[in-house]
């Protein structure tokens, strides 16, 4: 595990389970909402999952299971890959209360066991702003390619981690060049800091300059 992944693991295993409970309610409460209308939980991506029943789907950086559980309820065989044990705890409880099953593997995405999952999945699902956690996009994409079946589909929804949306000098820049790692606060730091004065760990993200 490289330095970026080590820092990100420490950060995302710090009180994440507590945060999910405060943000979305208990797994039991959220499960009740998901069960009522699973497809609606996928929001703008729901059309991609209308015929997911019986297929193998991987939710990479799947976090607390908010997307994996509804996909499982729609009939897919779902595997989550994520770096955080605290995320796993919430996700598995969420699946249990929703009366469905997901396989949740705690791992660095760079270290997924390709001998077990080569050409395995019909669908890969990545969403919610995750690309900035990876400093080697070419390596990430080669892993995703290896996971997919020949006729598989990848659904990737993200933002390009540019410092500014519009560059004043209009210069073209590439994600693959002129980048370094920078420290960043967890998304839920401000939320929990209102309840606690503890020091939060930071994660490393890719910064383009």
Automatic annotation (TrEMBL):
Residues 61-156 form the Methyltransferase type domain. GO terms for molecular function: S-adenosylmethionine-dependent methyltransferase activity. The keyword Methyltransferase applies. It comes from Oceanobacillus sojae. The keyword Methyltransferase applies. One of its GO terms (biological process) is methylation. Pfam families: Methyltransf_11 (PF08241). This is Methyltransferase. Keywords: Methyltransferase, Transferase. InterPro entries: Methyltransf_11 (IPR013216), SAM-dependent_MTases_sf (IPR029063).
